[in-house]
Each structure stands twice: as structure tokens, then as C-alpha cells.
Amino acid sequence: MRAKPKRSKGQQELPGWTSGLRQLYDQVVDEDLPDSFRDLLARLDKAD
Amino acid sequence: MTGAERTASDKAEFKRELAAVVPHLRAFARGLCGRADMADDLVQEALLKAWAAQERFEPGTSMRAWTFVILRNAYLTDMRRNRFRGEYDENVAERILTAPAGQEEPIHLADLHRALLTLPPERREALLLVGAGGFSYEEAAQICGCAVGTIKSRVGRARATLNTMLADGSVPKRSIDDATAHRAIMDELEEVAAGNGVAARG
After folding, report:
1. Among candidate residues B172, B75, B90, B82, the one with its CA nearest the CA of residue B124
2. pLDDT tens per residue, range B150-179
3. Which of A17, A22, A36, A48 is the best substitution to test chain B (most B C-beta atoms within 10 A)?
4. Which residues of B114-135 are buried (b: 16+ CB within 10 A; e: fewer)?
5. N or C: which terminus of chain A carries fewer CB neighbours within 10 A?
6. What are residue B111's phi and psi, to 5 degrees?
């Protein structure tokens, strides 16, 4: 699910900082995933 | 799927979907609690809970929305234990958001992030879900376990507060030092926590 979520309607009239809000969110989404997450995901099956 | 024995294939598909939403969980958590390290701890906790509760996930529904509920509940629990106080991560400081056409001064993302963290948690999460995460009001209401009108009201109030703060430059230097903001957060936390609706328990 790498596709960016669709934006809801009604956001066109918003002030400039709202794009910053998305930018704060998207820049985290676009970060490389730390190894700790890969390790955790790899361990999930084994925990069963 | 509920109640049925899950096959290896079901689990593999669940895990694939879970892995795909991790970046979004990290982004939501970062917005909620401010600090990157705490946010990642929260996401790891949520991932383990999601994995343990996977039989309650309905295939074909939104994994992102489902896991956000789990993350949110973990956050609220930790907030009640006073782990998070809206601390601000200085690593995001000084990133500048390019000013849109017609706007006189650029907004610093750092200011925006700090302003966001001063909002009461119910308004912050509503704004994050709708304004940053791109959820519809209906989806955000499901995640927060409240009425659509409530979400609209929270988003509206959050936007009004941020508009004022960013327009007149009244963003606190550090949200944790703002006693008023902190008291407001703690006062409203119980209300938010009490509002964990059906979706939140799913």
C-alpha cells in the first residue's frame, strides 16, 4: 500500500499550512524503515 | 474469517498488508507524540497487538484504519501513564516549508509541528487523520469511535487554533513548557479515552 491515501474533499479552501501538515506526515512515510521494524516483522511468524 | 482457523496463506497476506502500513503508522504516531523514538516504540507495540489480534481483521477492509485504531489505543494508554507529554523532536527543526503563492512568509515545519503538539489530543488526532492522513471524516470517526459531527467539530477547532497561532506567531517555543497546553491535554485526555467506541475495541 505504497500509494498515497486519497485526500478527502473540502480541503481546497484551506490555508497554506495545511500542505505542511501533509508534508510532515508524508516525509515520515517516505523515510527508510529502520531495521528494528524489519526485524520485528520477521519475528512475528516465529512468535506464533 | 472471524472464528475460522487461519491458514498460512491468510497469515502471509495479513503480514504483507501489515508491513505495508508501517510507514503510515510511523507518520501518525510521530504526529501524535512528537518524538521519533517514542513514536517508533508505539508503532512496534501496535504491530505486536495487531498481529496478536489478526483474526479480528476483516480481509478487504482498510488495514491502515484498523491498525490506526490499535495505535491510537496504545497511545492513549501510554498517555494515561504519562509517558508522552507532547515533547518536541528537535530533529525536524529548521526545515522550511516553501511558502505557497500569495503567502508572505514561509511557515517553518518545526513551528507547525510544535503548534500541532499544543493541541488537545482529540483535536490533534482528528486533524492528523483528516488533514495529514487523508482519511474522510467518516473514516476518522470510525477510527476515533465517535460521531462524524464530532470529528468535523474537532478538525474545525484544530484548524482555527493553528490558523491563529501561525498567523500571529504565538506558537510556543516548546510545547512541554506550555502549562496551559499541557493542562488542556491532560484535562481532555480522560474524555477522549472514555470515548473509545465500538471501532476502537474491534
Report:
1. B75
2. 999 999 999 999 988 888 777 766 544 444
3. A17
4. bbbbbbbbbbbbbbbbbbbbbb
5. C
6. -65, -45
pLDDT top residue among B14 and B100: B14
Residue B134 has its nearest CB partner, among A8, A28, A41, at A8
DSSP string for residues in B124-171: HHHHIIIIIS---HHHHHHHHTS-HHHHHHHHHHHHHHHHHHHHHT--
Contact between residue A15 and residue B19 where contact means Cβ atoms under 8 Å apart: no
Residue B48 buriedness (CB in 10 A; 0-12 / 13-18 / 19+): middle
Are B83 and B29 a contacting pair, CB within 8 Å? no
ipTM given for this complex: 0.73
| Interface residue A3 vs chain B (CB under 8 A) | no
B111 within 8 A of B150, measured Cβ to Cβ: no
Chain A hits for B136, Cβ within 8 Å: 8
The C-alpha cell at B198 is: 465500538
Using 70 as the pLDDT threshold, list the residues of chain A that sit under it: 1-15, 47-48
